[in-house]
Amino acid sequence: MKAWLFLVLLLASLPLSAKLVRVEKSYQAMGTTYTIAAYGENASNLEAILDMAFEEVRRVDELLSNYNPSSALSQLNRYAATEPQTVSPEVFTLLENCLRYSRQSDGTFDITVGPLMKVWGFYKGTGKLPTKREIKEALDKVGAENIVLDPDRRKVSFRKAGVELDAGGVGKGYAVDRLAEQIKAFNVKAALISASTSSIYAIGAPPSEPRGWQVSIKDPKNTSRTIETVYLRDQSMSTSGNYEKFFQVDGVTYSHIMDPRTGMPARGTLSVSIVAPSTLDSEVWAKPYFIQGKQWAQTHKPRDFRVYFCEDKAENPCAWLP
Fold it and tell me: Cα 302 from chain centroid?
């Protein structure tokens, strides 16, 4: 082990007897700002730990970013329809999980939603209204059944040309969980990790608040207002809202949360916030709950999930699901 890494590990393992200091750092990757706020005894030591943790985000970016043409995901989008592509065990396992999420969500989570995001202008854009023909042509390339996984050879192929993977509904959650693992490995006892505030994981609790890290759920109709406060301790929270990316045409709001079955933005829900053990789960399931609606979410909610649901209705629109 390198001497500097051994020193960081040694310092991180010391008991927390001195006054704790707070260090906060940010890093830009995958079109998202990742922020970590952490407490420790030594600021310099803590900064070194956070810098090393952000190296993991850079590594995940090289696997999953659509913005990076050399990422493993971009390589699949470019070549997997032509011939099977060998991928790392990590990427293969993540794709297996994505297909499982698709089955469990009745197809409302779909990593092949890329063509729809492009035709609606949400990929590197603020959105535009496509024609019915454009939607139909995009839908022809969407569907988890178009991904073929060969576990014996760890190869991935697409059944047709034009299929595109989009990790927008899974990448942030995966990266946040990987950051949490890295920080825990250095024995940091209190940290809050967020990806653009929409996907969050809390390690322990800050010194001044034993209940956990305080995070806010925005009012989807007035995002400057907090509608609910949550305390997270060794938990994640992810939020999907129609206010994140949207455009309006003739008074109709079209959000970026796409129903892969219809090719249209989901309607009837304003926002969904999920508190869950892992950020991957909370981020992934926020979309199917948003698309399928309150009753479906209530029926399919695991016992260890808490779900705060805001419907598009006049009276009592927001509440925790029982």
Answer: 18
Tell me how far apart the alpha carbons of residues 277 and 203 are, in angstroms, rounded to a whole number. Answer: 11
pLDDT digits 0-9 by tens, 7-33: 444 445 444 445 899 999 999 998 899
Domain containing residue 100: 72-165
Q: Is the pTM of this model over 0.85?
A: yes
pLDDT digits (tens, 9 = 90+) for 214-225: 999 999 999 999
Do the domain assignments include residue 320?
A: no
Q: Are residues 154 and 12 in the same domain?
A: no
Task: Answer yes or no: are the C-beta atoms of 289 and 302 closer than 8 Å.
Answer: no
Alpha carbon distance 10, 95 (integer Å) = 36
Q: Among residues 81, 75, 100, 74, which one has the least CA distance to residue 159?
A: 81
Of 90-94, 139-143, 249-253, 282-286, minimum mean pLDDT range: 249-253
Residues 153 and 22 in one domain: no
Q: Is residue 303 part of a domain?
A: no
- Cα gap 54→32, rounded to integer Å: 13
In a domain, 297, yes or no: no
